[in-house]
């Protein structure tokens, strides 16, 4: 029996569907950061000129420019936890966490970069240099080098914040919980540094 060109093309297409993958298989769940200090629903705040706080999304090294969870194996080697993935890149999640924490703990109006033109007031910028696990110490490590500038950039102050939280296993669940705790510790320290 002779096959038509259409039948041959259809058979080839069906055979290839089992071989082609459009992207990696997603992990069973995604990790996210949750602020331990939050503002209540319906709360209203106002700020006079120069009283607002603007939290800028921090810069990151290339190892953190992904939604995967890095593990520092030794001084020169980084790996990523299998099947562990954030809902967004760490810098954006951390900025949102710090903003929520500062607003809740200081009572101040907190703006992000999209609202910057209103009245930036105190600006907080910086680098999220570490946001992952240290396999040697079995710890989650969050390191944030922040710079705080006053109204109109009249005064600049820098400070390094770091939190280390023990992690029970180099796996998605324990890593996410420990990094969330460490990020909240850093955010609380940033809020105390900014003040009310």
From TrEMBL:
Signal peptide from the UniProt entry: none
Coiled-coil spans in chain: none
Name of one Pfam family that matches: ABC_trans_aux
UniProt-recorded name of the protein: Cholesterol transport system auxiliary component
Domain of life: Bacteria
Organism: Sphingobium boeckii
Domain ABC-type transport auxiliary lipoprotein component as annotated: residue spans: 40-191
